[in-house]
Amino acid sequence: MVFSSVIASTPHVCLPKIARPALRRTIRCSAASVSPGFDLKTYWTSLIREIDQKLDEAIPVKYPQQIYESMRYSVLAKGAKRAPPVMCVAACEIFGGNRLAAFPTACALEMSAGKATHLKSMLYGRIGFGLSEGSIQIVVPLSLISGKLQSSCPKIMYMTYLKSVDFASMVHAASLIHDDLPCMDDDPSRRGKPSNHTVFGEDMAILAGDALFPLGFQHIVSHTPTDLVPQTRLLRVIAEIARAVGSTGMAAGQFLDLEGGPNAVDLVQEKKFGEMGQCSAVCGGLLAGASDDEIEHLRKYGRAVGILYEVVDDIREAKQQSGEEDGSKSKGKSYVSVYGVEKAMDVAENLRSQAKKELDRLEKYGDKVMPLYSFVDYAADRYFGFEELV
């Protein structure tokens, strides 16, 4: 992998080079930035229900039956957070778009997140990582929030939203399927349930991931009404997703995680985790017709939130494992493994600040930005559990 091609793809998240003197015991986002009247849990839950229904319709069981059963096993996994689709929807709604117009892309993102990793690995003779049960799916809401669709037909607009959400879900699931494979992270289970390859075999898991990615693109093209979303916008959405999962995006992150040295940690985090976050938010804005400047703010916001979520996950896991016998799984390059918990907490605080700073640039949209602000708080604090939502 040529490092210059990775570096040239998108600007890097500016991370602190040294830890601040005071060690924060908890990661907190400023409560002042978020409206006390906004209920993220209710917002997220309602979207999950709609997304799950659309995903069920998007992947019916048909011949060859075993492949479709494998695809459905991961995409329709119980307890999935649907973070990518939700972020996509939320971003679309910021600019006045109806969430139904973003659902096709959002669902496609959920399907393809896992396939993206597989694509990266294939470029370097490996199999990428995929998505499976229990995984986070942030993409859908962001797209809906950014949607700036203008239409006199609410029903059609809503249908368009759902199509976008479908795509987000497909992409995400594909990446997790491949991520769990023995040649990658070798995870026999995900969130307490057997991984896809454990149930259906490695060959079927690879095929399921391979099938989900193109299905996501097909879903966007065939289910998004062009009277609501012009073809030029759809082309930009497809190009954005292809970029995010390709050789300068998530694939590069997976490669660097496998082959890069300790100094690659920044790029690993940015490419492997930040790409899906920024892609989810950007797709929502593109569907809604956001300006180039607004798209750039969404891109920087999504990248910061995507990395923040992973950093906080690593911190929480490290604290849970402290005092435990060695043997707990710790694969990949993270800020915790390379720099320690204290530095990782400083990084998380910096990312939180960056994400909210980008949203401040969208203040003219008022309360419509509240869902995205709340995602930052949730990524840092995890103040409710998704086992409560299903």
Automatic annotation (TrEMBL):
Q: Which GO terms describe its cellular component?
A: cytoplasm
In Pfam terms, one family for this protein is polyprenyl_synt
Coiled-coil region: 341-368
Q: Which one GO biological process term can you cite for this protein?
A: isoprenoid biosynthetic process
Task: Spell out the PANTHER family in the cross-references.
Answer: FARNESYL DIPHOSPHATE SYNTHASE, HETERODIMERIC GERANYLGERANYL PYROPHOSPHATE SYNTHASE SMALL SUBUNIT, CHLOROPLASTIC
Note the InterPro entries from the entry: Isoprenoid_synthase_dom_sf (IPR008949), Polyprenyl_synt (IPR000092), Polyprenyl_synt_CS (IPR033749)
Q: Which GO terms describe its molecular function?
A: metal ion binding; prenyltransferase activity
Instruction: Give the UniProt keywords, A-Z.
Output: Coiled coil, Magnesium, Metal-binding, Transferase
Cofactor(s) needed, names only, are: Mg(2+)
Q: Which PROSITE patterns match?
A: POLYPRENYL_SYNTHASE_1
- Record's keyword annotation contains Ion transport: no
| Name used for this protein in its record | Geranylgeranyl diphosphate synthase, type II
Family, as annotated: Belongs to the FPP/GGPP synthase family.
SUPFAM superfamilies for the chain = Terpenoid synthases
- Note the superkingdom of the native organism: Eukaryota
